[in-house]
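agent> Task received from the user: take the single chain below, predict its 3D structure, and emit structure tokens. No templates, no multimer pairing.
agent> Plan: (1) validate residues, (2) run structure prediction, (3) serialize to tokens, (4) report one or two observations.
agent> Step 1 OK, no nonstandard residues flagged.
tool_call: predict_structure(input=
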Amino acid sequence: MKFKNRNLRAIADMVIGDAKHFPYRSSSYITQFFEECDLDFAHDGSTRWAWTSDRLAELRDEPLAAPNTLPDRFMNLLRVLMQKSDAEDDDPGRKLALESLNKPLEREGFEAFYGEDNHLYVRHIGTKTISIASNPHRPYTPNEIKRKDQLIAYLDLCSEDELIEEILLPLFRQLGYHRITSAGHKDKALEYGKDVWMRYILPTQHILYFGLQVKKGKLDSSGVSKGSNANVAEIHNQALMMLGHEIFDPETSRKVLVDHAFIIAGGEITKQARNWLGGKLDASKRSQILFMDREDILNLYVVSSLPLPNGATPNEVSSKFDDEVPF
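)
tool_result: status=success, residues=327
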């Protein structure tokens, strides 16, 4: 995907604030902006628009996660650029800023819009493909690698409730799921072993419902659970109940079945555990089971640019280690 130079220049003017309805950024603030985008670009004091255009060209030339989309880090930059919290006084809803951004994007065959979550999305005009800035398979920046290491340390110490409340709920909200409800909330909607239920609205406006069964540690197929490890047989019945029982969606005022069940582990889900569960379920239910283990959680959380949970900074992690009672 190659943007024309004049379109990159137009977007660069928005980044540095030389375009209307965008905050002005001097050299240090340009560097700070790229840091907010998780990019290791530091302005060298040269001409602001030319330097910024060159950095945008580097992002433009990165591999695509899918055809007719924008490169992942380029898309993330646009999202940061168009945060509604940066609105100017003469454009409180950023409607005018969005119109300005769409001029160069439309010349390249794209259009930007705000979703219901107030995040920016970019759609390919011809195919209607939406670019999502969360490709977990792209190369990580040094800052992202550091964040991942801190998150690993947090997962080693957090409880199952903290895994759900501090990691999974914010992650799935960021990924576009709605009505995310965890066990213990006042509506008491969760039963039969479901830790979380949520729904996802397809572009066709059809709704899919998901139930989550979460275990903190490793999920294996050994005969006996050891320590924080869980035996997959322990969640077999819970998965069956999750898929077989209705939940009440108060927004649609009707009872619905869970379409898919996520089995999520804060550690590894072994291949043997996946195969064992697949062999116990019939073909229809087997297709409804989705797995996520620690590596999936880490990758999705880091690329989604979510803030680290309380207790995940180096000092806080160290203090949690200090509080551990030795055996």
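agent> Step 4: summary for the user.
The CA atoms of residues 81 and 103 lie 15 Å apart.
agent> Done.
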